[in-house]
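ok posting inputs for the zinc ion job
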Amino acid sequence: MFDEPIFRVFTYALITAITTGFGAIPFFFVKKMQKKWLGWSGAVASGIMLAASFRLINEGIEYSLYRTLIGVIIGLVFIRLSQQWLTKHKDLSVGNLQGANARKALLIIGVMTLHSFAEGVGLGVSFGGGDDFGLFMSAAIAVHNIPEGLAISLVLIPKGMSTWKAAGWSIVSSLPQPFLAIPAFLFVSIFKPFLAIGLGLAAGAMIWMVFADLLPDALENAKKKHVASIATIFIVLMMLFQVLLK
Ligand SMILES: [Zn+2]
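and the output
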């Protein structure tokens, strides 16, 4: 069965989704976080998400500069509208989280899921370019999903979610990868024109979220100079990590 190309694409893409859950592992060892640690974690999550967004934009530009830029604008409008919608629905709950915490949890899970759609399509399209390229992309995305799962967990766990649940939500946020990889692989020519838009859209939404939610929250819990320094260092580390993967 593994000889079937579709099955192979699905399996590799599923593995990339599962590795996202590994990002929650550190929290099995850290039980309670001090307030300033919350701020520092938010700074780490911001750095990781900003660098990941820039990677998506760079990747989109390789397909089409203008489509990527249009995608970023659509992402911005989309996340604004989603946030507005979520603010109106005050009775939201996610697991044991309620109110503003639930809204923030939903927003980060939503944004990360959105960006997985784009990555799933990217994965399928790269398998269309041959197994070697597809495998390479799967490995790159799998490894890069771990810090992204960490970023998600850094937001969810301090708000009161259990580590197992945070790991589960991290994996859920990456499930579009296997499910989008298959149609994208089968119909590369149909999906390819939308890839740049999707990558830009995801990046736009992620960047917005960093400035609207993650950094302001971090600044409430820790000193400005610390938050800014940690975010800067993690942007560079994540970019370095992405370059080393290539
Ligand atoms: Zn990603």
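notes: The radius of gyration is 17 Å. DSSP finds nine helices and two strands in the chain.
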